């Protein structure tokens, strides 16, 4: 089975999981005590007639399986539903808010990988020496600290005390500079980066710590492999061994973990967007929850789940690309 | 996910191919004793153990009534039992609001007093007492929801792993599905919709617990898959022992050690999540002193005027979770000598 | 036979410093390898063969360390210590630096073939890529020449379709084919000495035969010397010119191969030969060696083999024999480390026999009383007793 067929195979495998996510979101929103319209009105006195009219209009008076079927067929056509509360399609609302979240999550990953991989390799190379101990302490503190508290601390130090970086909001590099009141692209992009730094670190620290631990362990294991000893016995310099022979197979678990951690990262974005007042999907989710806008909540949950599933499929495919054994194993 | 499968295959050719039940039992016991001895020798595991022990001690003693807590915490315990744990119905006595000076700085700064070593909160309540009390909510929520995840995961994982086939497929797909939605998001949705819009720490406990069933189910399943292949299980099955008894008597005990390691680490993760929930307003509700909840209030209005309100609860979370992580890591190193230091 | 050996090892000691104590994995071994010969290093697992061979390349991994002895290759010093002014041992100034070892010795002069062909090739790189890299590095060839050379070598070791196989990954090769790749790798670097560490142990018997034939064939053609590490006396008989028998970190017998087989001097060698299945013997005649080899962390007193030795006498528990020359054959010495031989004048013949060779205690230090009572218990050896 070639890479192409493997890709198709993995995509097909993702379908049942996506259906499962739709069932879970639907079930949570619909099997909850109290019907959604009343829930939304939060105990306001409205006459029964009105409620029934609203229900009929959005198909809420139909039995559960019919409603789920409608929801599903909508999803397949890219229709995430309609927010009664905001009187707008859910998909439109989400598209408006997706950019900041994706920017935040991707930059957090870049930060995490750019720090975790060199530090993990260094720790493995200098095992049980000071550099290793420092990296392990950093990793331990990183996995033990709530991301939102890191955010708060960063704001206190860099925004409140030192006043060098902004404490709230993002500047979107894809917008024209004028929209943010900047005179040119250079200033605009510098501002984007300045706004991004603190939330990126806050969200990325947990990822960095996790990845650094894995990188260290994997490199240590990889350095003990017989093929590394063989490379040494053939006079390959230690640098090349670290960067090539031991490195490549050690990255395989990293790829898997990057994919699996996507769900933690997306969850973390909800917190970080709250701390830094960023108008992304995370804030949208909190707003929707506060307003009991269950169509919007379902839509966001569905999309977050789908992003995770697609992320895992992408990482699995890149895994297969690096490790030739994956695709081969299926052929046998 | 491809990796998980291949790791499983690696484990399957059981190392104890010729072991019988008695041997296996002896080995398990020796294994545990050996493990504990190693944990005792390992410095980091020991530090972790002490931190966990201290936090548990504080949490436990902060839970008793005001007389005992006076003994434990001395002068600062005047409001001690006032905001006791809401998970159980505990006699509560509200603190006199605004009795101390609001927003008093910690004792080591100008204007601080020794009677409120960490300062006071905006309502004039002693912050040290509140931080100490916060351990109760965090630790008990951490343990209770991990227990829910552990029990649920053990049942699902052992059934899936033992029977294999279609049951396994269906259960594992369900588990994978739950895994796909960010836990924090799933828990908030659960809490809000099930509670009908009035969140409460009890819903948080159940929600967090349910969300972590998949994690435990996966581990148990992979252990069961390797245990299942061992000869003595085959022998028991051939001898006509009921499946339920095989799972209960052989499979689960043999899968226990790695799961306990994971549970220890999971308590840390759970505390982290609950802090996040409270920070967003979906965990503990005021006036319950919870670290996440305290950070929520501090973040809202006092980040500029009183940074100490933001610092103490965060440090408390950090130390607690670090304790569980160190201890769990130590256990793991002791159990898996493959990559030891 | 040229007079200067290619490789000369003298009194080599490699130890592992572990939490539970010092493991003397290699404890003072001496041997030579001459140009164009295959020298066997034989013994049970744990005898220190692999550690010894890795020591020759100075690739012993922590917590292991070479602590003494001399390794000389073609007149250059791979390892040597000297006494510093303060009385401490320090590196000899002639000893090659780490960089020089890497650039001049490893791969270029001395190459290795490991036991497990499954683990020796990196799973995430193509077979050809790995081959080419080592050739490029050790023969200073350009990338394209190295590739051509790699393909030529793959053909040389009998891999069909080498151009196509060049692009494939290790998991697409069978075990025997991978071992051929590793042999190609070793030969392609054109070293003068190849250390083959149990290269056929992980293979089927038929494949093993093919590989041995191939090595025999190629060895003649390239005139490369080999150190052949194995536990299999059959392989030794088939391929080696001279043999070193190792037991618990020491070389207990050293002789040209025919001499070793027909004029066996050390009881351990004898035991190894007796435990080897042969077509002219029935299974009943097979005599497995009693007990297990003790751990090198706490070797028995006196002769290290005495707890398992059928010929052990009281003197063996006290006297630790160094290997001495007992004979010469084909211009090579026959050395043995057993006090039974006349060259050791320590009173073996007068000493009380220890009849419980079967009662193999894993570690030494038993008192005489214990030993006596065990003997008095009259342990029957499990193989039905040996007539001698």
UniProtKB/TrEMBL annotation, chain A:
<dbReference type="InterPro" id="IPR045621">
    <property type="entry name" value="BPD_transp_1_N"/>
</dbReference>
<feature type="transmembrane region" description="Helical">
    <location>
        <begin position="12"/>
        <end position="32"/>
    </location>
</feature>
<protein>
    <submittedName>
        <fullName>ABC transporter integral membrane protein</fullName>
    </submittedName>
</protein>
<feature type="transmembrane region" description="Helical">
    <location>
        <begin position="252"/>
        <end position="276"/>
    </location>
</feature>
<keyword id="KW-0813">Transport</keyword>
<keyword id="KW-1003">Cell membrane</keyword>
<dbReference type="InterPro" id="IPR000515">
    <property type="entry name" value="MetI-like"/>
</dbReference>
<feature type="transmembrane region" description="Helical">
    <location>
        <begin position="137"/>
        <end position="164"/>
    </location>
</feature>
<dbReference type="GO" id="GO:0055085">
    <property type="term" value="P:transmembrane transport"/>
</dbReference>
<keyword id="KW-0472">Membrane</keyword>
<feature type="transmembrane region" description="Helical">
    <location>
        <begin position="296"/>
        <end position="322"/>
    </location>
</feature>
<comment type="similarity">
    <text>Belongs to the binding-protein-dependent transport system permease family.</text>
</comment>
<dbReference type="GO" id="GO:0005886">
    <property type="term" value="C:plasma membrane"/>
</dbReference>
<dbReference type="Pfam" id="PF00528">
    <property type="entry name" value="BPD_transp_1"/>
</dbReference>
<dbReference type="InterPro" id="IPR035906">
    <property type="entry name" value="MetI-like_sf"/>
</dbReference>
TrEMBL record, chain B:
<keyword id="KW-1003">Cell membrane</keyword>
<feature type="transmembrane region" description="Helical">
    <location>
        <begin position="177"/>
        <end position="195"/>
    </location>
</feature>
<dbReference type="GO" id="GO:0005886">
    <property type="term" value="C:plasma membrane"/>
</dbReference>
<keyword id="KW-0813">Transport</keyword>
<feature type="transmembrane region" description="Helical">
    <location>
        <begin position="47"/>
        <end position="64"/>
    </location>
</feature>
<keyword id="KW-0812">Transmembrane</keyword>
<feature type="region of interest" description="Disordered">
    <location>
        <begin position="91"/>
        <end position="115"/>
    </location>
</feature>
<feature type="transmembrane region" description="Helical">
    <location>
        <begin position="307"/>
        <end position="328"/>
    </location>
</feature>
<dbReference type="InterPro" id="IPR000515">
    <property type="entry name" value="MetI-like"/>
</dbReference>
<feature type="transmembrane region" description="Helical">
    <location>
        <begin position="143"/>
        <end position="165"/>
    </location>
</feature>
<dbReference type="Pfam" id="PF00528">
    <property type="entry name" value="BPD_transp_1"/>
</dbReference>
<feature type="domain" description="ABC transmembrane type-1">
    <location>
        <begin position="135"/>
        <end position="328"/>
    </location>
</feature>
<dbReference type="GO" id="GO:0055085">
    <property type="term" value="P:transmembrane transport"/>
</dbReference>
<feature type="transmembrane region" description="Helical">
    <location>
        <begin position="259"/>
        <end position="284"/>
    </location>
</feature>
<feature type="transmembrane region" description="Helical">
    <location>
        <begin position="201"/>
        <end position="220"/>
    </location>
</feature>
From TrEMBL, chain C:
<dbReference type="GO" id="GO:0015833">
    <property type="term" value="P:peptide transport"/>
</dbReference>
<keyword id="KW-0813">Transport</keyword>
<keyword id="KW-1003">Cell membrane</keyword>
<dbReference type="Pfam" id="PF00005">
    <property type="entry name" value="ABC_tran"/>
</dbReference>
<dbReference type="GO" id="GO:0005524">
    <property type="term" value="F:ATP binding"/>
</dbReference>
<keyword id="KW-1278">Translocase</keyword>
<keyword id="KW-0406">Ion transport</keyword>
<protein>
    <recommendedName>
        <fullName>Nickel import system ATP-binding protein NikD</fullName>
        <ecNumber>7.2.2.11</ecNumber>
    </recommendedName>
</protein>
<dbReference type="InterPro" id="IPR003593">
    <property type="entry name" value="AAA+_ATPase"/>
</dbReference>
<feature type="region of interest" description="Disordered">
    <location>
        <begin position="350"/>
        <end position="388"/>
    </location>
</feature>
<dbReference type="GO" id="GO:0016887">
    <property type="term" value="F:ATP hydrolysis activity"/>
</dbReference>
<dbReference type="InterPro" id="IPR050388">
    <property type="entry name" value="ABC_Ni/Peptide_Import"/>
</dbReference>
<dbReference type="InterPro" id="IPR003439">
    <property type="entry name" value="ABC_transporter-like_ATP-bd"/>
</dbReference>
<dbReference type="Pfam" id="PF08352">
    <property type="entry name" value="oligo_HPY"/>
</dbReference>
<keyword id="KW-0067">ATP-binding</keyword>
